[in-house]
């Protein structure tokens, strides 16, 4: 069907398209007064085009970062070139709620934004067009993938039973702390400890109860050390702690706190109540060890001395 008035027909078709397209379209003059506001914007903002016409955008949407958008628009108008901002740089310009059921886990709509200059018949930029793209589904999928990758990375570094660092990760940190000492010479201590008479716990109460004892030991350790310290499960019922910027005496105080807390606690399991103790060895790093393994050996020898002298005690390496 041909239009009797082609120009009027084309304009009607263009307006109809802009009203129905799934992209937000906002036209502003250089004073940020709204000149056009399409159906996408009406639907997601709840504000009609007639209501917002000629109003300053920031008056209607005070949450919009005015200084940031003004800088962007000024650059677009001055250079007569488009600018683009992705959701990763700024999650959204308009704080619209996410209405898509597929991506219902996201509270707000993620948006990409294009800012384009509009010129008058004289060639001067006198208006700005904002195009707002709903990219919530893409952003949500990418964020979920990033969270999954972070979780996988964390799992690869931690012991599944206790949540502490696993042996490989923890040993790498021991090596890094050894090298840091070689460079800066600050006091640092290493702790090796294990659960006393752990085999009888497994034999008398079962392996599930034994796992509970290991988890409890890890929890007490985690709650007793500082954020800068690093605890790991070395294997079986054996654990280790790196105590940066800590001399042997202060390390002993930390270890005594852990030892006493475990000694005084009673584990309630389905197999019965369990009380147990731990033995701990401390080695403050000196210039003597030639590598981190020799440093670990010093702490292990101190742990062995604690075992030999009666268990349930802390021994500092000579």
TrEMBL record:
Its cofactor is Mg(2+). One of its GO terms (cellular component) is plasma membrane. GO terms for molecular function: diguanylate cyclase activity; kinase activity. It holds the Pfam family GGDEF. GO terms for biological process: cell adhesion involved in single-species biofilm formation; negative regulation of bacterial-type flagellum-dependent cell motility. Keywords: Kinase, Transferase. The keyword Kinase applies. InterPro entries: Diguanylate_Cyclase (IPR050469), GGDEF_dom (IPR000160), Nucleotide_cyclase (IPR029787), PAS-like_dom_sf (IPR035965), PAS_4 (IPR013656), Rev_trsase/Diguanyl_cyclase (IPR043128). Its EC number is 2.7.7.65. PANTHER family: DIGUANYLATE CYCLASE DGCM-RELATED (PTHR45138:SF9), REGULATORY COMPONENTS OF SENSORY TRANSDUCTION SYSTEM (PTHR45138). NCBIfam families: GGDEF. This is diguanylate cyclase. It comes from Marinobacter nauticus (Marinobacter hydrocarbonoclasticus).
């Amino acid at each position: 069907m041909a239009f009797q008035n082609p120009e009027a027909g084309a304009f009607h078709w263009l307006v109809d398209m802009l009203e129905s397209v799934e992209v937000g379209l906002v036209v502003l003059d250089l004073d940020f007064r709204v000149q056009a506001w399409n159906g996408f914007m009406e639907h997601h903002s709840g504000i009609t085009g007639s209501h917002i016409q000629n109003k300053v955008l920031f008056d209607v949407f005070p949450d919009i970062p005015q200084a940031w958008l003004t800088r962007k628009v000024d650059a677009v108008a001055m250079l007569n070139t488009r600018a683009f901002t992705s959701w990763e740089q700024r999650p959204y310009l308009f704080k619209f709620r996410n209405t898509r059921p597929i991506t219902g886990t996201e509270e707000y709509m993620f948006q990409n934004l294009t800012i384009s200059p509009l010129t008058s018949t004289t060639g001067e930029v006198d208006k700005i067009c904002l195009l707002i793209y709903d990219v919530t589904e893409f952003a949500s999928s990418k964020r979920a993938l990033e969270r999954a990758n972070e979780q996988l990375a964390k799992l690869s570094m931690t012991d599944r039973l206790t949540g502490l660092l696993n042996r490989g990760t923890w040993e790498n940190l021991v090596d890094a702390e050894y090298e840091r000492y070689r460079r800066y010479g600050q006091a640092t201590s290493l702790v090796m400890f294990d659960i006393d008479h752990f085999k009888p716990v497994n034999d008398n109460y079962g392996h599930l109860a034994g796992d509970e004892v290991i988890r409890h030991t890890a929890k007490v350790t985690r709650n007793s050390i500082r954020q800068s310290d690093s605890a790991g499960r070395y294997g079986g019922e054996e654990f280790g702690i790196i105590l940066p910027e800590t001399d042997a005496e202060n390390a002993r105080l930390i270890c005594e706190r852990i030892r006493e807390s475990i000694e005084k606690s009673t584990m309630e399991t389905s197999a019965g109540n369990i009380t147990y103790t731990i033995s701990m060895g401390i080695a403050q790093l000196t210039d003597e060890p030639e590598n981190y393994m020799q440093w670990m050996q010093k702490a292990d020898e101190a742990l062995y001395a604690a075992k030999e002298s009666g268990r349930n005690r802390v021994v500092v390496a000579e």
